[in-house]
Amino acid sequence: MPAPINLEHVLDITLIFISGFAVFYCWLLSRRLQRLQSLETGLGASIVSLTEAITKTNQAAVEARESTVETVKTLKALLRNAEDTLPQVEARLESLRNVQRNAQNKQDELNAVLQNSIDPALKNARTTSKSLLQIVTEIQKYQTKSRLRVLHENAHSPSFRCAFRCYFNQPLGRTF
C-alpha cells in the first residue's frame, strides 16, 4: 500500500515547486536584466545615445549662444551707426524736398514765361507766313504775266516762229 500522503510531504512538494518556479523566474529576470544593461541594444545603448545627443545639444547651444552674442554686438553697432546718421539723412531729405519745391516753382515760372512768349510768337509767325505766302503768290502772278507778255511780244518775231516750229514740229497758227 502506498504510503499515506501527509501534510509535510505536500508542503515539501509545494515548497520545491515554488522554489523551482522562483529559480525559473530569477533566471528569466536575469536574462532580461542582461539585455537591458547591454550597451549595444538595451537600455545602455539608449543611455549612450541620449548622452551623445545631450553633448551635441550642449555644443550647439554654446555655439548658438556665441553666434547670438556676436550678432547682438553687430546689431548694436549698426543700430548706433543708424541712430548717428539719422539726423544727417533727415536733413538731406528735407534739403532734397526744398530743392524739389524750388525746381517745381522754377519749372512753373518757365512754363508761364514760355507760354506767354510762345503764343504771341506763334501768332506773329502765322501772320508773317501768311504775308510771305501772299507776296510769293503775287510774285508768281507777276512772273506769269511777264512771261506771257514776253511771249506775246516775241510771238510775232521770225525767230520765235522758227523755234516754235522746230520744237513742236508744227507751223504756228495764231499768235497770242
Your description of this structure?
With 176 residues, the chain is mostly helical. It has a domain at 38-129. It has three helices and no strands. The chain has helices at 7-37, 43-154, 158-168. The chain starts with 6 loop residues before the first helix and ends in an 8-residue tail after the last helix. The mean pLDDT is 83.
In short:
With 176 residues, this protein is an all-alpha fold.
Can you tag this structure with a few keywords?
176 residues, rod-shaped, 0% strand, mainly alpha, 3 helices
How are the elements arranged and paired?
Blueprint: H1 7-37, H2 43-154, H3 158-168
- The helix/strand class is mainly alpha
Helix content: over 70%
How many E strands?
0
Strand content: under 5%
* Termini Cα gap: 187 Å
Shape designation: rod-shaped
Radius of gyration over C-alpha positions, nearest whole angstrom: 63 Å
Count the DSSP helices. Answer: 3
